[in-house]
Write a structure and sequence with these properties.
264 residues, 5 helices
Length: 264
């Protein structure tokens, strides 16, 4: 089983944080075209997951146009595409409209391929303090999804479910409430008790990390346009994931390549 992950494309205005240009997205349309070419010609995954924040929010009209541009561009891929909702995608776009743009009935859903069950979660904004959670309705749905399948499961979500050490993160050091799901321990408990989940993937934090909870690896995937290590060089990051038997191989492509391996 081989699939690819792309996250935090942030098509829209460039963003500075603490005086540093962090989202180097001025040429992101060109980067995306080259990514599509690379995926079709060399990677050839069974599917692609886009882990949210397709756009850098600006206003309703520009956000719609930018979402349509990315979704339309990715249709040139020779594989199915599955979308996760990110916070920037929903700043000016409603949940119902975003689901329609993604050609989905809901922002959380599942699909099967080979001997795996894939689960897409939606981390929803809780209040004006920018805290995020998985709703009670979605928790019930998640439990049902895990109960009904006999297959191994892989979970995708925008915000972090692992208890990450945020030291050194240029965006979120000292701010776990802005990047980690509030009820993450409760969700991890559901995943762990199922004895079916083999990996969880999230984005949003703009770095690559691997954390372990109850022998389940939680992988955070870098943004496509991050100014990684403050070098002023766009990351162009994406992940290629290979799962075979009890081994999970996550290779980060782009200007800052990395590799994570987990053996159950």
């Amino acid at each position: 089983m081989k699939f690819a992950i792309l996250s935090d494309i942030h098509l829209g205005p460039e963003e500075y944080y603490k005086g540093v240009l962090r989202k180097i997205n001025k040429k992101v349309k060109i980067f995306l075209d080259k990514f599509i070419e690379e995926i079709n010609n060399n990677i050839k995954p069974e599917f692609l997951v886009v882990l949210g924040d397709l756009i850098q929010d600006e206003n309703l009209i520009n956000d719609r146009n930018n979402l349509n541009h990315i979704i339309g561009s990715l249709k040139r891929l020779n594989c199915p595409i599955y979308y996760v909702a990110g916070n920037h995608d929903l700043k000016n776009i409603s949940e119902d409209e975003l689901a329609t743009l993604f050609n989905q009935k809901n922002l959380y859903y599942s699909f099967d391929l080979e001997n795996y069950h894939f689960i897409i979660l939606f981390s929803k904004r809780f209040d004006d303090k920018i805290r995020f959670y998985i709703s009670d309705e979605q928790k019930d749905w998640l439990q049902q999804e895990l109960d009904k399948t006999e297959n191994k499961c892989v979970v995708f979500v925008h915000y972090g479910l692992a208890d990450q050490d945020l030291t050194g993160n240029p965006w979120f050091e000292g701010k776990p409430e802005k990047c980690l799901i509030m009820n993450r321990k409760e969700i991890r408990n559901i995943l762990s008790k199922s004895n079916k989940v083999v990996a969880v993937f999230n984005s949003h934090l703009h770095w690559d990390k691997k954390n372990i909870h109850d022998n389940i690896p939680y992988f955070t995937i870098q943004s496509f346009v991050e100014n990684e290590m403050d070098k002023g060089i766009v990351s162009k990051a994406y992940a290629v994931v290979n799962i075979q038997n009890d081994k999970i191989d996550v290779e980060i492509k782009g200007n800052y390549p990395k590799k994570f391996v987990h053996q159950s």
